[in-house]
Amino acid sequence: MIATLLQIATVFSLLSLLAFGGGAAALPDMQRAAVDVHHWVTGREFLDMFALSRAVPPGSLIVVLIGQKAAGVAGGLVALLAMFGPSSMLAYGVARVWHRAGGAAWRETLEQALAPVSVGLTIASGIAIARGTEHGWAAYAVTAVTTLVLAFTRLHPLAVMATGAMLLTLVGG
Amino acid sequence: MANRTNPRPASLGALFISFLVIGSTSFGGGLTGWIRRELVEKRGWLDDQQFLSCYALSQLVPGATNPNLAVLIGAQLRGAIGALVALAGLMLVPLAILLIIGTFYFAARGAPGGHWLNVALAGAGAAAIGFNIATGIRLARINIRRLGPALIAAAIVVGIGILRIPLLEVLLVMLPTSLALTLWQRTP
Question: Which end of chain B is more exposed for a tag (fewer CB within 10 A), N or C?
Answer without folding.
Answer: C
